[in-house]
Amino acid sequence: MVAFEPRLFAEIDPDERPSLAASLVPVAAMIVFLSVGIVVFDLDPQFPLFWGIAFTGLFVRYHLGFSWDALYDGITDSILMGMRVVLIMFVVYALVSTWIQAGTIPGLMYYGLELLTPEIFLPLTAILAAIVSFAVGSSWTTAGTLGVAFIGIGSGLGIPAPMTAGAILSGAYTGDKQSPLSDTTNLAAAVTNTDLYEHINAMRAGTLVAFGLSVVLYVFLGLSASGTIPAGRIGAIQSAIAGSYAVTPLVFVPIAVTFGLAIYGIPALPTLGTGVFAGALTSMAVQGTGFTAAWTAAQSGTAPETGMKLVDGLLESGGLLGGAWIVTIALAALSLGGILERTGMLAVLAHHLGRLSRGVASLTGVTAISAVAMNMLAAEQYISIVVPGMTLRNLYNEQGLQSKNLSRAVEASGTTSAALIPWNSGGLFMAGTLGVSTLSYAPYYFFGFLSPLVLIVMGLTGWQIAYKEGEAGETTPKSEGSVPAAPGED
């Protein structure tokens, strides 16, 4: 797990602490740059983010007086924190290509088309993704392996790719949240001083409600989306796959190796790296691919010619080099987030959000808003957990609430919302891996909306709210007024 110690409001010298107004200036500028660059001029996100970095750097250097070295250190620390994420992005892109070349993903598509029907595909996809993600403890691993195959199966069954992607993500993040192997689950428990299994148990009821509602919605969505499949379409797809790949049980060796290591508890990066080797070796042993061709596919991607355009498009991949476009956005967003964190702006924004809480309901809502805001500003879900988790701990204590209320809140909103933000590492990874833009799959990623919504309902109704010993059943919070300003606050 990445160690990360954010600057907290109370730890910043009042003479160096930016005001709320100053902290909002880069946020407003970023919104303008992204809107103008992407919407008006149809640019990719890299340079609008670069404009935001340049503006923010000049603003904090000449208006707030921070040194260039301080800004460089902030950028370096943020990129260092996100480096494992960047490496996983590259490895997953190589893994997908080797698994296509090995026949693993084509094999999953071949048998999936035979076993699944359009009516049950979406809810079953969500459920299977949840089971796999819980077992391996990683939503990213699930999406980058089975998720890619599900996209292909769904296309063959006539299900739009954004719907399939939404179901994959709902299941993947559900399992991730509840898995003791998940890094974000462990992180949320650690930064809030909560026992890991108390944290997991505290999330269970809300997660089941949100996921259950999601599955019900996918049932209805599947019934409405499952039109009549053209006669012979599935057979034609299977024939195209079988004509280009040897479809045998041996093609699933990379899945067995990768998921076996993950379930055993090996961290994501070495597990996925081993999956790349397993895919390359399977490609050579089963498909007869040459050594050079196998590793060239891992580096540069695949461009199969199966004789069917639909299949060619589904099995085309970019390899290691194809991850560069996504990674450049991630690095730019992390750089901007690093400046905001280093200058204390994130701490100021989180602190002032915390001051809006006047009771359990508003404190729960503020926590959810803080986590989503950090995901948007810092572009990294670790920060969306760490900053609110550490900033709001005292407020939960003042309300007489057990820490598991806070750990549940930051994960129910922070972990799940990352994939809804196009420039966040979560949104970038999912969009790039599944081949569906964030804005396209967002309306169908039901769990991403329902998880924070159920959390807010918990705060409003008091359901599953746990008080400290001797304070259970309190209906009046210990602190009804707003949180007093810290000494030296603007």
Largest beta-sheet characterization:
none
How would the global form be characterised?
A: globular
Low-confidence stretches: 473-490
Number of strands: 0
- Oligomer state of the chains in this structure: single chain
Distance between termini? Answer: 35 Å
Structure notes:
This protein is an all-alpha fold and 490 residues long. The chain has helices at residues 20-40, 46-62, 68-102, 104-115, 118-136, 139-156, 161-178, 183-191, 196-225, 233-244, 253-264, 268-286, 291-300, 309-314, 319-322, 324-342, 345-354, 360-378, 381-391, 393-398, 403-417, 425-434, 438-441, 446-461. It has a domain at 83-226 and 235-318. Helix 1 runs antiparallel to helix 2 (46-62) and helix 3 (68-102) runs parallel beside helix 12 (268-286). It is globular, with a radius of gyration of 23 Å. Mean pLDDT is 87; it is low at 473-490.
Task: Write a concise keyword list for the protein shown above.
490 residues; mainly alpha; antiporter activity; membrane
Secondary structure: elements and pairs:
Blueprint: H1 20-40, H2 46-62, H3 68-102, H4 104-115, H5 118-136, H6 139-156, H7 161-178, H8 183-191, H9 196-225, H10 233-244, H11 253-264, H12 268-286, H13 291-300, H14 309-314, H15 319-322, H16 324-342, H17 345-354, H18 360-378, H19 381-391, H20 393-398, H21 403-417, H22 425-434, H23 438-441, H24 446-461
Quick structural summary:
It is a multi-pass membrane protein. The chain is mostly helical and 490 residues long.
